[in-house]
Amino acid sequence: MPEFPVNASPIQQSLNPLQQILGYTEPIFNASMAGAAGGALAAAVSAAGGFGMLGIGGNATKEWIDNEAALAASSGRGWGAGLMAWVLAKNLEPLEQVLDHGPSFVCISFGEPGPAASLAHESGALVGMQVGNAAELSRALEDDIDVVICRGNEGGGHGRNEVSTLPLLQLALERTGKPVIAAGGLATAAGVAAVLGAGASAAWIGTRFAAATESTSHRNIKDSIGAAGLDDTVYTRAFDIAQRIDWPVQYGGRALRNDFSDTWAENLEALGAAVKADDSLTTSINGARAEGDTSLAPVYAGQSAGLSTTGQSAAEIIADLSRFRSLLRQAASRWDTK
User: Fold this and answer.
1) Which one of 106, 156, 170, 196 has the fewest CB atoms closer than 10 angstroms to its CB?
2) Per the UniProt record, which EC number(s) apply here (predicted)?
3) Do residues 196 and 290 make contact, with C-beta atoms less than 8 angstroms apart?
C-alpha cells in the first residue's frame, strides 16, 4: 500500500489522499474505455483538472500503445491506463509497454490481477481494480490493490450485472479504508455529489466521456449516445459471441439496444450456432463497427446515456461536473439542524 501524504500544506489539506498522490484537483476520472478513451481524451481530462485514463483493448498493437500513451502524457499531468486481467494472463507485454511511458495509476480488472499488479507496483504506479460484486470486492481488499473501483451494473461496457452502484459503494466504504471510486450510472454534477457525499474519493465516468469531442468513438456512436434515453440499454454477451471475442462469460456488456441486440440478445444459443456455422455474421458486425453502423455494431453505453449529450469537450464536461461542490454545500445547509 502507498504512503499517503502527511504534514500537508493548507491547499493540500483540502484534497483527499488519492488527489494528493495522483495530483488532480477535480475528483473525476474518465473510464478507461477501450475504443473511446484514447490518448487525446486522457490528456484533455487531465489538463482540465481531472484524471485522464487510457483504455487498452485486447487487440492494441505496440505502435498504438506507444502513440496513445505518449499523447496521454502530453498534458504534463498525471494519467493512468486500464487493462484487462484476462488478456494480461496470456501476455504481460501490453502492460510492460504502457509502463514504459510512466503512468501513475494502472487499473487491472476482469480477472485475477496478481502478476500484473506486482509488475505495475514495481514501476511505482498505484494499482486499482474494478469490482462488480462482493466476491470481487474481497479480492480487491488484498494488499496488492491500492484503489477500489466499485462498478455498478448501470455502467456501460463490460462488467458484471449483479449489483448496482450505491449498494456496492456502501459495502466497500464499510469494509475498507482504501480509496474507493464510484462507477456506473454517473453523468451529472448531482451524481458526482451523491457518491462523493457518501464517501467515495472520486467518480469514474464513462458514457458521457465516450461522447466527448476528444473520444475516439465513431461520430455515429456519439450521436447514438446523445439521442438515447435511460431505458435504452441492454446487458448481453451477444456482441462478443458474434465477434468471437473471448471475454469471460461472467462479463457481459451493457450497450444501446439496436437491431442486432433485438434479434440476438435473448437467443444466445442460436447465435452461437450461427457464428459457428459460418463467418458471415462475424464479418457483418466487424464491418459495421468499422463503418459506424449502429444498427449492428455495439454502442457500449450505460444507463447514463439518457443524461449525456454530444458535442462537448472534456473540459466542458469537467466544468459541468465540478458543480458538485455547490450541490454538496446546498445539501449540507439544507439538512444541517444545528
Assistant:
1) 170
2) 1.13.12.16
3) no
